[in-house]
Amino acid sequence: MWVATTFGTASTGTAISALSGAVAQKAALAWLGGGALSAGGGGIAAGNALLALAGPIGWSIAGASTAVTGLAVGIRNGAVGMVHLYHADVQERCVALGLTTKEKIWKNALRFKAVCLPIYIAYVLIFVYAVNGARGFLTGFWQLFGILFVLNLMDRFLIDEWWVGHTKAWTIPGTEQMKPYINAQDKKRKWLFGILGMLGIAAILAGIMALILR
Length: 214
Hints:
With 214 residues, this protein is mainly alpha-helical. The protein contains seven helices and no strands.
């Protein structure tokens, strides 16, 4: 919004910075929406939509950065420390090679879920409801889904495709021939969950929060 009020121009040609009050706000929203409807732009509605998306995208980037940091800590002494995220056959190979044990894998998986899932859920709830001030089912649902969906995109492209698929950071010695660790079937499953699963999670969380905050 600051960019629009500082550098934007109203449909009349007047600098938005020279306007004030509701007139300035409407002009700024129309500018963000690509211009007034009469000029072929998206108008105020498009500007509001852009602002609604800007928050979730920003918080998603911050959340993804936090997730990457957590994973980096997990593999600081070698990717075998996070082998619970790999296929069962890779886990079995690591056990056979003496790199870890089934008990360690189970404990690490349990610890990962117990720590990460509550933080993940708390993160999106805090920024949608405490920071953004969302109220009502639909507002909360779309913001929750926006953050979760963008997080999923970053997970697919940044972590799965690039970090795991094109660097050696996640390579476990003795399992190189089992690559790719994330195969085509895995990717399809993750994309499906990233869309339908996130819709379901967003709906459940939004429904719960709508009841709590009504």
